[in-house]
Amino acid sequence: MRKKLIVSGCSFTTKDFRSAAYPEKTFNFKKWPELLAEKLDMDCVNLAFSGAGNRFILSTLTDAIVRTPKDEIGLVIAAWSQSNRDDFQQYKDIDHMFYNEKFIKGFKWLNDRKNRPGDVFSWTRETVLGYLQFQSLCERYNVPYKQFQMISLFEGWLSGLVETENEVKERLDKEYGRNLNEEDIEKIEEHRYNEMIKEHRHEYKGDGVRDRDLLGRIVSEYEAYINEKNFIGWPGLRYMGGHTIEQATLMRDVKRKDGKHDYYEVMKDRTIGFLDKHPNEDGHVKIMRHIYEQLG
After folding, report:
1. Residue 199's pLDDT band (boundaries 50, 70, 90)?
2. Is the dihedral of CA 147, 89, 96, 69 positive or negative?
3. How far apart are CA 268 and CA 251, in angstroms?
4. Bridge partners for 7 per DSSP
């Protein structure tokens, strides 16, 4: 009997990825969970959903773990997302399954990335408690597991959340008075695009330097309880010696002349395009290989 690889995450993980910035493009290639399942000779159960936050990831994995016969589970992976994303469900009295709900008819998951109640400190703490809940559930049922931050936990929020690809595309279409195609988009000057992104960034109201340090301390408070062997890149923060999977596979560390870190640059050959920095086919291969190398 082939075992199951059960995975949940956000748009960097979903099987059914679509790009709002490049609606004419198709992405029928295998994503990293399917590639990893092939490598492990397992059947892939990919629960991921574009825009998903960490409540969705924890909930869908919990449901899958408790409902799947344990002798059928080969590995469970949590690919954690941004802490600011808010997930919630709506129920409608209908006799079919929503495409992003796998187990109970009538439920639909929704999300919001900018208006979550609370603050970045409470969101971060809730996520780390989610790490522990996921870890405890897997260890209770004695199922193999790994977890990691796929993308940054709170850096995007502190630096000022940028517009989505869809919002950028809509703004450009409005400015040019027509629907831009891929060739049009690639001709837009990069510095002009970056200036527009900065102008419409969701501004963080606090002290980013001070709060980054406090958030790191909040995460480190739970280090003694985390099984680091099963957390790839712990604690998921570069400035504390960890990394996200995105940083490790889709970005390069650009250093200053003195050799110290300056910024992270997205590798253009591993991402979709100018307006969309999600992994392309080669990017998903790189993600799969990085995760596979950490499974031993």
Report:
1. low
2. positive
3. 9
4. 46, 77
**Cα 134 → chain centroid:** 16
186 has a pLDDT exceeding 90: no
Contacts of 41 (CB under 8 A, 6+ apart): 2
In terms of C-beta distances under 8 Å and separation of at least 24 residues, what long-range contacts does 97-105 make, across chains too? 99/16, 100/49, 102/47, 102/60, 102/63, 102/64, 103/63, 103/64, 103/67
Set out the domains of the chain in order of their start, with CATH numbers: 4-160+205-268+278-293 (3.40.50.1110), 162-201 (no CATH)
Residue 252 to residues 4, 165, 265, 267, 268: CA-CA distances in angstroms? 33, 22, 5, 7, 10
Cα–Cα distances in angstroms (integers) from residue 278 to residues 19, 75, 195, 272, in the given order: 9, 25, 20, 6
pTM (predicted TM-score): 0.91
Nearest to 37 by CA among 4, 70, 65: 4
Q: How far apart are CA 7 and CA 259, in angstroms?
A: 37
Burial class (CB in 10 A: 0-12, 13-18, 19+), 227: middle
